[in-house]
Amino acid sequence: MGNKRAQTSPNPQSPAAPPPAYADSIDITAAFASLSLSGEPRDPTADSCLAHLKLLAAFHALKEDIGYTDGLWGIWDDQACHDGKQDGKIHEKAKTPDKDDNNGPATGNPAAELLSKSREKRWAVFVARAADRYEAWCKAIMQPFEPLTEAHMREPLSTKYEGFPTRGRARQWSAVELPPLDVLMVWHAHMLNPRAFLEDMMRCGAQEYWMTGMPWNLVNAAIDSNFNYTVSDDAKARWMGLTGCQWSNTDDSMFKELSCPACSERLQLKWSTSGFDENGSPRNITDAAQLVGSGYGDGEFSHKCHRCNITINKELLSTAKFVRDTKSLLHRSWPLPGTILDPATGGPELEPANYDSDRTYPNRLVKKGARAEILELIRPGGSDGVPPTMDGVRAVLERTMADTTRHYEATGQRRTPYASRPFVRRMMRAYWQNFSPFAIDLVGAVTRQSIFTAKMAQLDWLHSPAARETMERLIKKYGRFFAIMAQCPYNVAVPTLDVDLAWHTHQLSPSAYYAFSMRLTKKFVDHDDKIDESKLSTAFAWTSRTYQLKYGEVYSECTCWYCESVRASHINPIGKMLGISRNDQISETFHTSGRAKLCPPDNSAHISAHNAVRTVGGDDRRGRLLQHMQARHDRMLEASYAKATKRAQQKGRQLPPRQEYYTHWGYSYFMYSPYVYPTYFSPEIYCGWDDSTVHAGQGEYANCCQGSCGSAAGGGCATAGSVCGSTDFGSGDSGGGSSSGGYGSSSGGGCGSSGGCGGGGGGD
């Protein structure tokens, strides 16, 4: 093509050259066709970010394939639309009417909406099975390792504890060791919860898997340009021999084998009952409630043991996990989760030789004070078949802490030390709404990560001619983001989608990320995957303002109404009137430079909100405070939107409409704002609990034990990060960190500003 153009006569009378042939068009796979990758853990590079995008594209393609596989798990499209056909066609693209609140759309086309939920249900069961297969893989590959004990926590520089994050060797992976794509997806989500992943690897002694992380060279080689994941027959045979599972998730049995927690009877449980009626016959699905189901991978799992008559459900399984860990503590000296990492630094902190630390207080409380009652919680025939729950565990711990005699026998102190109280909550957090052997519920983690995956698929940077330049730019921006966290350790920093891609990529090399984070911030910065949506928005506004002032550039390169409102909140009206507002100048330069035209409102890298949840307050003081804070945030956002609208009109521009629609399994849903929890999800149909909502009222399920509240670093009553601190939209002070280190916070808690960060109001 280039030579032909060089030989063409410049004579304007010559006939126009024909358009380029299709075969001569740009290769849209060129950006990721040949990546330079290593199997060693490293800081993110353009190549590793592109490899990560390839992996996310493979996850997204897998999700689409599963959701659209008609008949999978007995769920058929024509069953869901039995009464919803019009002229023989299913009208899937009908949009729902606008709605003023953010609690979800009003129903526009019931048949199409039900079909969408049926497809989501297929994926929900698939994810539950994937998490179970990941657990089987972990048990198999980690069997040779020596688990962490309380004695290891007192050994200086022990590679089992103090030296675990930094003093090991990376594993040399081979292609034959790669797991199936669904298991890779769960492992990916696990690593994106850095502190939880570190604690889990430490507890089972799997140092080499921690040191290595994602083997990018092998994973990238297994994914082709169409995002198909392919491995050798030897890899498939090895997997099946190692785990006893089929290579393909959908080829595994439709029954889950489980031992009854009360009598140990081996039971065969259906994975899902959604597609069948009580007689086991296929049924027409006329209501979304029928998709919930009572199978092991369903939303309301319930099965009565035919031997001891106890009802097995997810609450019982969580309690059984706690009882099992208590036995391991008593007989093997394996510490409980939540007692291993120092909440202030996020890393292991050597136990003193001559006294007991506050962090390990729950181990002593359970081992010497509450063990008898805990071990009696689950027994055949107990409580007339009514299963115990974690509420019962909470009650046992509350009684032990309140009984001065028992407490003295367990800890040598009459009352619970104030500094020890938050660690009871930290320990309990591994069991509330989580019956997996890991520190977090991985089904929920995968579900939240799939939101980010869908955003990456929509942005489609992989097929951009400027893909590599985009990766290099976002890595630079990620470095700036981390510098802000280092400078402002008591504020919560929230990433944009491009920053979050680099951040996620870094976390997939855990040991490299640990070293980087410790070097810059002196802490292992967590990536909290649950944060209240209003607080997320408030913290994002603070991050945006801080970034603009520090680097002289807009933070969120997006022109949607929300991002324009956030930028407008940074502008001091007096400074603008006097022509000295730096934030006004930065925002205006973004538009006048032409950069804004390259950032459409419906397809740009604005706030990354895959971890947003709704916090529901109770009737107590804490709940009322939360409601007040949420209402205040909404008022501030409305004021900023009005400000942005007026500013745009003065500049001859028009803000895009606030009505946004997101397509989910072929059905369009209304979304109020990009920072809210996605209303199109149906958490009730997933295995486990409702991950979209957190209850903040005192005494609510999954909240802390009475007497365990405190304000030590890392603490928080269920949603401490949501109810601690300011909610001024766009202010310089975003408020406290979350209980696990904060979403982009290098401190475990505290409300305030430090290192020159913050400042009052939203002005310059």
UniProtKB/TrEMBL annotation:
For the region Disordered, what residue ranges are annotated? 1-23, 86-114, 735-764
Q: Which organism is it from?
A: Magnaporthiopsis poae (strain ATCC 64411 / 73-15)
Q: Where is the composition biased (Pro residues)?
A: 12-21
Q: Where is the composition biased (Low complexity)?
A: 1-11
- Kindly provide the name given to this protein in its UniProt entry: Alpha-ketoglutarate-dependent sulfonate dioxygenase
Q: Where is the composition biased (Basic and acidic residues)?
A: 86-102
Q: InterPro entries, from UniProt?
A: GRDP-like (IPR009836)
Pfam families in alphabetical order: GRDP-like (PF07173)
